[in-house]
Design goal:
InterPro entries: Acyl_transf_WS/DGAT (IPR014292), O-acyltransferase_WSD1-like (IPR045034), O-acyltransferase_WSD1_C (IPR009721), O-acyltransferase_WSD1_N (IPR004255). It is built from 15 helices and 17 strands. By secondary structure, the protein is of the alpha+beta class. A hairpin with a 2-residue loop joins strand 16 and strand 17. Helix 6 packs across helix 7 and helix 11 crosses helix 13.
Amino acid sequence: MATRLTTQDASFYFLEASTTPMHLGSLAILEAPEGGLDYEDLLSHVERRLPLVPRYRQRVREVAFGLARPVWVDDRDFDITYHVRRSALPKPGSDEQLHDLVARLTSRPLDRTRPLWEMYLVEGLADNRIAIFTKSHSSLVDGANALEINQVILDPTLEPREVAEELWMPSREPREAELVLDAVAEMIARPSEGAATIRMVLGDLVGEATKAIGNVAAVVRTAATTAPSTPLNATISRNRRFATVTTDLDDYRTIRGKFGCTVNDAILAVLTGALRNWLLSRGEPVTAFSSVRALVPIAVYVTGEGAAEAVDPEVDPAERDTLRESAERRVFSWLIDLPVGEPNPVVRLSHIAHASEAHAKQSRTVNAQTLVRMSGTAPATLHAMGLRVASGLSQRMFNLVITNAPGPRTPLYLDNAKLLEMYPVSPLLRNQALSVGLTSYDGHVYYGLNGDRDAMSDVDVVAALLYEALEELLDASR
């Protein structure tokens, strides 16, 4: 029998519109190994790892008349060369040209008649580099049972791990009559399930996604009013702009050491400073009480006593393993008003640190959580979890989503190619002109800024202002 999409997987599938493709993106920049990494090498490598992510060879099959949620079925015509593609920049390709390519690829929805993912090998980058851009639909990656493909193609050593060979044979696809009979039987056995499916098909996607996540009352209580009015919320197009920022993790440690905050607090303070100066650059009215409300999904470990500890980007992986033995790893979200009206960077940081401390103490009552059952670090999946929480809440409650997922402290490799940089590309929700994704990796913190091409035509200005805001806090630390 075919596996039915979960309620939340289905909500993501139906939530997609022409202006809001619901795929997660990941941009990896690698150092080309001696002899290079060509398309055939990547194709062979990905094909060997596909057994670790079986859903990447399945497509979505809808049930007639919307009687039940769609099902996953094996793609009997699966063609890996359709999903793993090749692109190139005119040599020597610049980072700006790469960002333009990523923006164009991000704008395109995935083909729903095939498994919902694509991977691009981008050649021609300057300085002996290659890039791999991956798109995976949010319904495909749930973080618990279905992982994102980048988690299985990268290795912690130059020696690729052994993966058992598998002769894949697609299962028989169910007939339409079988799917309809199963749906009718399910509706009779569980009438509430059938009613939920009908509401989803008719468009009550936010409500069904919220129920799938769990009780979000604790999050909602923090936002009794709607989010402030800012240019971050506007009608968006189907086209995107993309920018990146690369910073040193040691800079955030310096700020933490001086002011007694966390690394995550310092990151939020840097973002607040950049958003403040961006609003001023647009001539927006910024008063002492101005704020930007952000939804911030954060990975935490929750102990048996209910205490939560944020996953700090600099925690050694071995220490994480020890902590995991006595705690659950979860993702919880909280709404924070970023004080963009405060001109003093140290005061801004103080406000954010106090707010995050208060939320940490209350985190045992926050039920909008999704358990992440996996070993090691998985930033791509943690970004997926953050998106799932965000999509289950009304977009009137916040101005933008900031996902921050810790990655490994040591280098990763794809065959003989060393991973140099990794940038998340989070999708835009309806009327959300900007999304910010962060990932720490190998001593750096990488920002991926995905913006609407029209509403956020100056997304590169935000990127430049992030560097300025970080330097401003560092100057205060010195």
